[in-house]
Design brief:
The chain is mostly beta strands. Helix content is about 5%, strand content about 35%. The protein has three helices and 25 strands.
């Protein structure tokens, strides 16, 4: 007979701005009275497969709320406890961003490259690495990274990404009355608004400098586009803003941009992944010396290593933190500890090489299991 449970699903939660981890204690898994015989994970050598079902949170947070950095006239992130706070307004009596607690915990610059550790010891670690260049209308986007015997394997592009494109328009009055909302003019062939009109060139441009009628909807590191019907071609990213008259690209466009050309930017982006679950897996074949990374059962990276036979270290391992954390608080500790922020639902490791996965639940074979943690509960 089976039990059917309904209600709110729970898991092991690492809130934004936390400092926490779970330790897998080596001393609890060895028989010190019998010649230090090791068990499970700590006795393993050779091939293995790691799996986890997780929900990452958005560590970028909303960008600065200003006319020069908000491209759609509304705040860039819905307020939620699953999104990092950010400096969004000037507050009287505050003398700089450093006085905000979120900036002291993890400043905006460090957020853009922050690594969030899922599992870690000195021989094997797997993490999510933020790969964004700014946080203006840009939630965090994550690559999967594995370090095995000091050799790193990381996906070429982010595999957990923000959602863009919507089927409705924003109100004519923006959330901040000081901002002028954009004209909604960026539909794709499916009727989704994927881009937003941000300005018109007021002179032809053939080099890195693009002459524009209004620069208030553009900011540094922003990607800009030209439109051809339902297709949008990237011009590249903005290196600097010449207030009111033009912006400079990192690289010049291939062709001259004529006057009266409309320039587009990405439409509203949302960190929908904070409400979803992702199956992340890493398999290592000790015969072929090959590492494979998977997202939701799909192979996203293959890498060949040059190592001898792999042996799991006989030491503590950590969940949600680096294997050599500082156990400190304050500025810099979050980056050093590689703090994970999000939810962990299940995690396992087996001593076989897997190529196919059940992505909604982990069902490791009992005979092959090195460890299995189920963090979820539900209300009955």
């Amino acid at each position: 007979m089976y039990d059917v449970l309904i209600g709110k699903q729970r898991g092991l939660i690492f809130p934004v701005m936390c400092n926490g981890h779970v330790r897998i204690d080596y001393s609890d898994n060895t028989n010190s009275s019998n010649d230090n015989i090791n068990y499970g994970l700590f006795s393993h050598a050779g091939s293995f497969t790691f799996e986890a079902i997780v929900t990452p949170y958005d560590i970028n947070g909303a960008g600065q709320w200003s006319t020069s950095a908000n491209s759609i006239g509304v705040e860039t992130t819905t307020e939620t406890q699953k999104v990092m706070p950010s400096v969004t307004k000037t507050q009287s009596g505050v003398s700089g961003n450093d006085d905000f607690r979120s900036e002291r915990y993890l400043n905006v610059t460090d957020r853009l490259t922050h690594e969030m550790m899922l599992f870690s010891n000195s021989k094997f670690s797997i993490s999510l690495v933020n790969s964004t260049t700014h946080n203006q209308n840009q939630p965090a986007e994550y690559k999967i990274k594995v370090v095995l015997d000091s050799q790193a394997t990381i996906t070429d592009v982010p595999v957990i990404k923000a959602t863009s494109g919507f089927g409705w328009s924003y109100p004519t009055t923006p959330a901040n009355p000081s901002l002028t909302p954009l004209v909604i003019d960026g539909f794709d062939a499916d009727g989704r608004i994927t881009h937003s009109f941000a300005g018109t060139t007021d002179a032809s441009s053939s080099g890195v400098t693009i002459n524009i009628d209004d620069t208030t909807k553009f900011h540094e590191n922003q990607e800009v586009f030209l439109r051809d019907g339902f297709n949008y071609t990237s011009l590249g990213t903005i290196a600097s803003i010449n207030t009111g008259v033009s912006f400079d690209l990192v690289n010049p466009p291939t062709n001259t941009i004529p006057t009266s050309t409309k320039i587009y930017v990405h439409s509203y982006k949302d960190a929908c992944y904070i409400n979803n679950q992702f199956h992340i897996a890493c398999s290592y074949n000790d015969i072929s010396k090959e590492v494979r990374l998977f997202l939701n059962g799909i192979l996203v990276k293959v890498n060949a290593l040059t190592i001898n036979d792999f042996i799991m270290p006989q030491e503590d391992s950590f969940i949600g933190n680096h294997h050599n954390p500082s156990f400190s608080t304050g500025k810099g500790s979050t980056t050093h500890n590689k703090q994970f922020m999000g939810e962990m639902h299940e995690m396992s490791m087996v001593n076989t090489v897997k190529k196919k996965f059940l992505i909604n639940n982990l069902l490791p074979n009992l005979n092959d299991t090195l460890f299995y943690f189920r963090f979820e509960e539900v209300d009955e």
